[in-house]
Structure formats: structure tokens, C-alpha cells
## 1
Amino acid sequence: MASCLQIADDEKGHDLDLFCVPRHYESDLDKVIIPHGLIMDRTERLARDIIQDMGGHHIVALCVLKGGYKFFADLLDYIKVLNHNSDKSVPLTVDFIRVKSYCNDKSTNSVKVIGGDELSNLSGKDIVETGRTMQTLLSLLSECNPKMVKVVSLLVKRTPRSSGYRPDYIGFEVPDAFLVGYALDYNEYFRDLSHICILNDQAKEKYKV
């Protein structure tokens, strides 16, 4: 099982006034649950693990938009640094796909794949995939006959709604709360928030569509 940093269910988080939070979001958030610096340090370690495991393979890094873009970019930056400064290195190309599975704060029963290049061009390649909604996408990828698929996810949520699926690389295991920030959104808001925070109930109504 992939190792990760666990955020306990009773974790109280950190007061907003201890961090730089955009003023227009201050009334919308309960707590900072994962500060940006901790995200970056954990992402650097994930990059090192990937290089260690995948060195020698040609990797197509597939970013799941939109929520995965910030993690994807930071992860690839760390991989590029390691490629330049370590004994192991990996040939790396990138691709993008958009997946939508949330309406307001509810995960829907359907997963929509929107835009992106044709998945058929991934045939025969090794893939490190970054994002949150996985199983439907994995079934689509399997039709393209990649040599190997590895999934990297910054967050895995402990929830009774989980199918039990676990990615190959995990940043943090988090409580069953609606989290925003670091490109994770609520109806497209909060992507510009650096830290990962707990959204309060008033904000759910305020930004509801």
C-alpha cells in the first residue's frame, strides 16, 4: 500500500490569520488544513519516489484538469530538478485531459471527459497520472494498451462513499470534508488559494450554482 501523510479526522487545522489568505476568501474558509509549504515538501518526496521507481522508463505524465494542474506542475518541476541532479533520470513528455465529476459539493455518478488530446496516442507508453477522479479514466486508458499506468494523487479522502481504490503514490490522506485551494475548486472558485483549506457551509451556499 502506498505510504502517505495522514491528516486525522479530528485535526482542527490552523487559524487563517496565521497565513496569507486572499482577503476575498477570508469569510468563506474554516481553517487551513494543509499549508502550502507542507504540500511542496511532500510533493518533492513523491517526485523522488517516482524517479526511484520509474528510472529508465519513458513517462507520459497525464494531467487531469482542472484540479490537478498545480500539483502536476510542481511535481514535474521537482522531477526535472532530479533529472538534472541525480544518478537516475526519466525521459518525460506531458499531456492533458479534463475530467468533471462534481456539481456544487456533491460528487456525481457520472464522470465526463472533456477536451484534451486523443487518448489513443498513449498506446505503448508508461503513464504517471495526476488527479482525483480515477476509475472511469483508468478504464478508458486501458483501452489504449499502455505498458504501465501509475497514478499519483495529492489527496485521498477517507469517506464511506469510497470504492476502495488507492493510487500508487499518495501525498495526503484527508478527512471527509470539502477542501479547496491549491487549484482545488468549488464551482471554479478558490483555485487561486495557495493552501488547502476547509470550505465553510456559508460559502457553499454563496457560490452554489
## 2
Amino acid sequence: MPLILEVCVDSTESALAAVKAGADRLELCSNLGLGGGTTPSLGLLKSIRKVAPIVPIMIMIRPRTGDFVYTEAEFDVMIEDIRYFRENDVQGVVFGVLTPEGDVDVARTQRLVSEALPLQVCFHRAFDMTPWHQLSQIDGLTRILTSGQGTTATSANSLDVLKDLLDLAKYQDTRIEILPGSGINSFTVGALCQALLPHGLHEVHMSGGHWTDGASIWRRDGMGMGVGGASEWGVWRTNTSAIRAVKDAIDSFKV
């Protein structure tokens, strides 16, 4: 079996580019270039379904950028969004909830998992900021997106953590997939696969995105609608060649 490539996207254009380049699954967000992504709209999901009706889609459930400690009002929004998307042809949802002390909020996470079932559930990279053993207390998780608790999944320390996580999932039969992400590109994915395949790697996650110049020709001096700097008037887009290069690389490996 080939390795699965998941690509995170935040537009119809990026979704189509990723699928054409060989993505096996999409993680759908909004605002991907502005702090890691937030919950997308139903309109975006339906637009992508018109151009990519078959590809599995995981929906980011994150009411805002910033930390992963949510107010009661924000948590209620997450529950409602899960209910909304559960009825709209998605494979699953992606979220992460922490306590102010940096632990997994086990009670809230279990509540969200229960709302999402029978969909797949991925705990996202909030995992990398917390003691990872806590997720073993939660029933119903499908996978964990993680950089190995480092800034990228491809550093030596991160690879060691990812090996431990994969071994734990395999030998304890937790049935939770470990999904490495962050820093994965055509230059790093080969070494990552060589290091992790003996430990049970089945899938990898990447963005492959970059800022492109927007279509506005007239731009008022000193003003903008973006995040400042080079991306002030920019649009975040998936790079087809970046996705295809990683897909070609991982297809040379077998699970």
C-alpha cells in the first residue's frame, strides 16, 4: 500500500491544485496562512465538492487563531460546527483543546469526539504543546497530527519522538494513526519516510502553500487588507509542484 498524503488547503483553487497533484486527503481550513487555519465555511466545502467530489475531507474545527484554551462560548461554537459538518459529507474533523496549564482538556476533548462520531477525529498540533500520554484517556480518536513536539517533524529530536509514538500505537494496539506534519517537503520527506516506515508510518501531512500576489492593481499607500509585509495584498495558495514532488517521493516507498 502506498503512503497517504494529506494536504491542508483553504480555498477551492488550492483544493483543486492539491488533488490534481496527487493528494489523497484534504484538511480543509480557512485562514491557513494567518496562524495555522480556522473553521471553514460550508460554502467553501460545497464549492470544493463540485470540483473534487470523491477526495476525503477533514474539517478544521477552530473558532479563532491564537491559543487552544477556549471560552464556553467558543466551545459551544465548536460543538455546533461539528454538528453542522457531520451532516455534510465529510470524512472527519480536526481539533485540539488544552487547559490553561498546557494539558489536554480531556473532558472537553471527549465531548467533541462524542459529538463527531461516527466521523473520524484528528487531534491537531495542539498535541505538540502538551504531555502526549494524556490522549490515551480519550476514546474515539482516529489520528494525531504532530511534529514530534518540535518545530518541524524532520529534526532528529522530532523523529525520535515520532518513532516512540508510532511504536506505542503499534504495540499497544491503540488504533490511533500518527500523522507527521510540519516542515515536510520534497527535500525532507525521503529521510522522514526512511526513519519512520520501520515503525509503522502510514501517512504524512503537508501544506505546500505560499503567498502569491493578489489581483488588486490599485493599492492605496499605507493601507492593506492582509497581514502586513509581503503578504499584505497577497493570497495563500497551494503550490502544485510542491505537492507533486512529495507525492512522487512517497510513492517510491511502500507501507
## 3
Amino acid sequence: QVKCGVRGDSGPGCNAVGMIDRKILGIQHLYGRPVYARSQQCSIDSPQNGPLPPDAPSWCQAPFDPEGLLSSVMAIVTCLIGLQYGHIIVHFQKHRERIMHWLVPSFGMLVLAFAMDFFGMHMNKPLYTVSYTLCTAGTAGLLFAGIYTLVDLYGYRRPTIAMEWMGMHALMIFVLIACNILPIFIHGFYWGEPNNNLVSFCR
């Protein structure tokens, strides 16, 4: 049982996202190995999974779904904001108009995101809070406007060839990483002994 005694708590296991998922979906349908199980409060071997410390809080053993109901709603909002960025290309023909319609909302979202974070609604990726959504969408809008200016306005396409390739193969890259195919593939190349690989070299 998860014991939560602080109103507005956004900590692991004691937040609105977890509560709604437990009430609607049921605790047996939630992800049983949440990321906070590797925290210092929940694992002696932190940052790896390990035995519970003697004074571990009750929520350490509580399941939590990072793709829960509320989190999914905010992820959909992020997609809709991205769709709006795309609509600007369709409805505005001049470079200046497009860039301004990207920059103004993006700056507005960033200001609002940091204001919300300052007043208590913190940026939190596992919970996909409103402030996190606004921050990521605003940052993406600024980057998109910058790359558009660099490539379409000034014609500097060569520096963005790698990003263009990644954008064209985004789903494939996601599958390779999410299914651990790419890490396994990288681990397979080593010199001398298995520990001498690209992953250990980059650490």
C-alpha cells in the first residue's frame, strides 16, 4: 500500500498520475519496475536495482506507468503543438511570417513553463507535467525556427545532413534503441576483451 500524506506531492508513487492510473487501470496493470526503484531511497545498489534499504518509503515497491493516462494526454498535446508548427508552413508563404509564428508562441511557452516551474508545477518527464510539455514544445519550436532559417533561408544544408537522415529514419532509430538492438550491436564490437567497447569508451 502506498501512503501519501502531502497534498500536491509530485514524488514517486504519490502523485495524481499514479493515483489515477491505480484507480482506473488497477495496480496489476501498471509497470512493475519503475525508474525510481533505482534511486538511493529505494536501492542499496543505487543507481542500479538492488535490495531495499531498511528505511525505504512505502512507494518504493509501488508500480508506476510512465505512459499513464494523464501522461499520455500531455504527450498528445505535444504532438498537436508540433502539428500546429507544420500548419504554419502550409498557411504562410513568406519566410518572415513563418519564423515569427514559430518564435512568438515558442518564447511564450518557455516563459510560461519556467513560471509554472517557479510557482510549484515542476518540470517532470515521468509525469509529463504541463510545464515539461510547454518547455519541450517551446524549445522544439525555437530549434525548428533556427534550422529553418539556416537551411531554407540561407541555404546552409550541409551542416544538417545528419539531422535530415535521422528525421527520415526516426522510427527505425527508435525501434533499434527501445528494443536494445543498437546497444547490443555496439557492445559486440570490442578490442582485446569485451569490456573494451564503444560504450565503455564513451563513459
## 4
Amino acid sequence: MWLEHTPTYTFISVILVVSTEKVITCASSSNVQHLSCDMGVISVQAALYGRADNETCGEGRPQQQLANTECSLEGTVDILKKRCDGKKVCEINIKVVRTSNPCPGIYKYLETKYTCFPATTFLSSLHVGQVIFVYGADYGRRDQTTCSYKRPASQTENVYCSHPTSKVADSCNGKNSCTIEASNSVFGDPCVGTYKYLEVAYTCICK
């Protein structure tokens, strides 16, 4: 994958911060939390797995399962940021964040607050010193159509193959241009037998 900033005619992305979204998913093992941005990319601001009140996801639950309102699993926001930052759509199964039980006997939920950063793009002929800034990158497969030409269905059917990576940001941030190979040898193989691609969300910023 090649990311480039052209010094003569460059597309400059203007980042506009919009209001923060909040999504709550009750902690049943089959539940999946869905984050999405109609424009721009996801930036997770905060996340809680546990319980902060006695009402959320409390319908039909006995009072003793709602009593502890200071229940929070440490590191939840890091999991969400690693998996979702820089994507337009992100789905997280509750089992992914349930790495331990912060409060046994308490019915928990996942609450995520995130912001969408839409990129308004316009053509500029100014000679501005800009460099690449990577929001996030993911190596794997999240749909059946991207990079699917002449591929058998068996290689594109797994759309839950996601491997967030910081390698693109580590290699490309602060540079005018950047080339990185989208291959298993660079990013590992998150889903054997599935044909994968590298998806990068980035913009150009002033030095």
C-alpha cells in the first residue's frame, strides 16, 4: 500500500469534530456492539465494561445483580481503541472485552463513547509542508466484496477477520510518502485461508 502527499496539488483533509455518540450493549455472551460513522472514522473516547448505575440493562434482573454501581473492568477502553479507532464500522462481541470478571454476581454491560471525525476534502494548489497521519489500520477482511475479483467464495466468506495494527502508523506517520506491503509476512495471518487486504484511514496534516 502506498500513501503519498503531493507537494504541488494536494488533498488536504480538514478534521471536524462532531458530537460524541454513546452505545450500550447488555452483557449476554451472544451480544455484539456496533459502532459506525456515516462520515469519517471512529475515535473511541471512553469505554466501560461493568456497571455504573442500577438501571441500565436492569430490566427483569434481581436487585442484587444491580447493586454494585462502581464496577469497571480496567483496560476496556484500550481494547475498544485498538479494534475500532480509524474504522468507519466496528463490531465487537461482548466476549472480546470480557477478559476477567470485575464484580462477580453483578450483571454488566458495555458502554462506549466515541466521536466521528469526518474529513472534508478540497483541492489546494498551495505549497504547504504536510505529512501523513494515520488514524488506524486493519489487516484482514470485513466484507465479501473488497479485493474479491476472481477469488473463490471460500476465500471471502469470513468477514469477521480483523487484525488492527499500529505498524502502518509506526512506518508512515510524519512522512511525505510511504510504501508498506500488505502481506502475511508483515502483519501475520489473522485468518488462514481467507484472502485479506489492508485498510488504512489517514489524512495529511501540517508539520
